[in-house]
Amino acid sequence: MRQPSAVELAQLPDGLTLARTTPVFDENTVPAGLLAAHQVAEGVWGQVIVESGELDFVFEDAPSNVRRLATGDRQVIPPQRPHHVHPVGAVKFCVEFHR
User: Fold this and answer.
1) CATH superfamily of 18-98
2) pLDDT band at 65 (very low <50, low <70, confident <90, very high)
3) Any idea where the domains of the chain sit in the sequence?
């Protein structure tokens, strides 16, 4: 497995506030839309938070660069950058949205 790039490990920009958090999803309840290419709206930043298990995260502009997220990992998602996720076995995760 490769090392994540600085962009992939980026922190949320200063000055954002939490707008909402999704319910906790698992490998059976993850919405189909998250498994296919999608993006966060303009002006909104996302953050995937893995509560337990493992989840593969892929930016569509770098599909060969899969980042495996494990319990406690977070993945920042810049606005309008296409991406998708793929559960790796049993997993629990949520997504925060910040403005």
Assistant:
1) Jelly Rolls (2.60.120.10)
2) confident
3) 18-98
pLDDT at 9: 56
**Look-up of token digits 């910040």:** 98
Q: Check pLDDT > 70 for residue 14.
A: yes
Strands (E), 1-99: 18-21, 25-26, 45-59, 66-70, 74-77, 83-98
CA angle 3, 5, 8 (to 5 degrees): 110
- Biggest alpha carbon distance in the chain? 36
Tell me the C-alpha distance between 43 and 60, whole Å: 19
Whole-number Å distance between alpha carbons of 69 and 46: 15
The answer to whether 78 and 42 are in contact (CB under 8 A) is no
CA 34 to chain centre: 9
Enumerate the H helices of the chain as residue ranges.
32-35
pLDDT tens per residue across span 73-94 = 999 999 999 999 999 999 999 9
